[in-house]
Design brief:
This protein is of the alpha+beta class. This is DUF4283 domain-containing protein.
Length: about 260
């Protein structure tokens, strides 16, 4: 490990570590997982109490809090690690638990959650469409399809079909799809900060910056400020994927539906 100073300034020390030494330092952490509860803060003791039951681990585990809502987990058994890594989506307090493999590039303060596994519902879908290949194809338009829920495959639930997908949290969500002459709504389980106007994750309708104020309100503001209002129609939002509406064939407004109620 070497030390030098930026521009010769002793107040700006710079350290560097050789590649072999860096690899050796990383080895104890290579099998760790990084976790974070999406959309909610949770304490160390709460996770320590809940995780063994949630994951049904057969061996022991170690938990380390690393700030900004992130935690690192180390397992005694490789089988437990693999089940946690690939057995999701996991949920605590009706919020998704993000699970990622640790990497040397992980820095809690600079890491942003860009994607997550989510359970989605296709509401009112005809039973003839409860076919794995059909459902995965529909899901591929929404995100990266992972698997169809077992209750859906076994036809033990008929109100909706459920599929697990990996979605990009930085893009607007799809609120509906058209299949054989009918529009069907898509419902997203466990996503509480999902805007029903723009379809984006991270805020709700009342905080949406893309919501256009009613024209009457705009005129009132202009009159009070002594500003002449321009004439012409108010332009529509560029993203109309989440306008409230009903399922119909001739006229359908798309809807983004976060569902906090579970089954």
């Amino acid at each position: 490990m070497t030390l030098e100073f930026e521009g010769g300034d002793r107040l700006l020390p710079k350290f560097s570590i050789t590649a072999p030494t860096f690899k050796q330092l990383c080895e104890p952490w290579e099998q760790c997982l990084v976790i974070k509860l999406l959309g909610r803060d949770v304490g160390f003791l709460t996770l320590w109490d809940r995780l063994p039951t949630l994951w049904k681990v057969q061996g022991g585990l170690e938990l380390l809090d690393v700030s900004h809502g992130y935690f690192m987990v180390k397992f005694d058994l490789e089988a437990d690690r693999e089940r946690v890594m690939h057995g999701g989506p996991w949920m605590l307090f009706d919020h998704y638990l993000i699970v990622r493999p640790w990497s040397p590039e992980f820095v809690a303060s600079a890491t942003k959650v860009d994607s997550t596994l989510v359970r989605i519902r296709f509401l009112g879908l005809g039973v003839m469409f409860y076919d794995e290949s059909v459902l995965l194809t529909i899901a591929s338009a929404i995100g990266k399809p992972v698997k169809v829920d077992l209750n859906t495959l076994n036809m033990t639930r008929g109100r909706f079909a459920r599929v697990c997908v990996e979605i990009n949290l930085n893009e607007p969500f799809i609120g509906r799809f058209f299949l054989n002459g009918v529009w069907y709504n898509v419902e997203y389980e466990g996503l509480h900060l999902l805007c029903s106007s723009c379809g984006c994750y991270g805020h709700v309708l009342r905080n949406c910056l893309k919501v256009t104020r009613p024209e009457s309100t705009a005129h009132e503001v202009g009159e009070k400020a002594g500003v002449e209002q321009p004439s012409g129609d108010t332009p529509q939002s560029a993203n109309s994927a989440a306008q409230p509406g009903k399922q119909s064939i001739s006229q359908v407004s798309e809807t983004i539906t976060p569902d906090p109620h579970g089954d």
